[in-house]
């Protein structure tokens, strides 16, 4: 059975978060869903997988609670469970930036549909910026995009303040996985005095879904925050895997390194590996393999 995967977010005021958390968790568990939902006073953000009926029931539930269909809702598929369990968590922000002036409900950049994106980024006056983290840009990015080289989204503010200038960079286009980071990034940049800030509506995932490979300006695959690790055009599962020890996405070449041991280490983290941690990781890996086998039998 093919599993449905739905990714969604919406900036919308939410109250009584503990009650909402309990309601959503019970609902998802009853529908046999797995994934992660983050809720905050500013809105909701999540990715959930499961049978078609259960996923659609969740979308209908969220539409009744917070009009999620007015935000971003993207669907894809997975041949195996991309999540181990269901989690609903309360957070100060649904995407952490720690910049009060970055409020998409007050201001946000200009949305650009995927079908119009190629034309925009072909403009020589446009600076194209990837707002994602280093380990994500490693897997793939747009042609000619600037990589800020950040390890977490909270570092994007420092990058803008150090490297970008409103008087010089008058047209800035940005993109991220599903669009949510660009909501805050564009709001932050407008608050800093940048005049024209554009962002890809629906993010890379919507671009890969809507734009044909032969006209695409995307290079590589798109990192996703689940066990699929990466997807390509048409949102088909990609070729990358993740290091179970540190989470680093790994190419096929990296898995042939002497530093790579499945479930235990990779070239990025092997120098920090102690004998005690290696034993723990090997035991955890065996446990996860057993749990995955049971999951595959249930799909």
UniProtKB/TrEMBL annotation:
It catalyses: uridine(34) in tRNA + AH2 + O2 = 5-hydroxyuridine(34) in tRNA + A + H2O. Its EC number is 1.14.-.-. Residues 122-216 form the Rhodanese domain. InterPro entries: Rhodanese-like_dom, Rhodanese-like_dom_sf, TrhO, TRHO_N. GO terms for molecular function: oxidoreductase activity, acting on paired donors, with incorporation or reduction of molecular oxygen. Keywords: Oxidoreductase, tRNA processing. GO terms for biological process: tRNA modification. SUPFAM superfamilies: Rhodanese/Cell cycle control phosphatase. The keyword Transcription regulation does not apply. Catalyzes oxygen-dependent 5-hydroxyuridine (ho5U) modification at position 34 in tRNAs. Belongs to the TrhO family. This is tRNA uridine(34) hydroxylase. It comes from Fulvimarina pelagi HTCC2506.
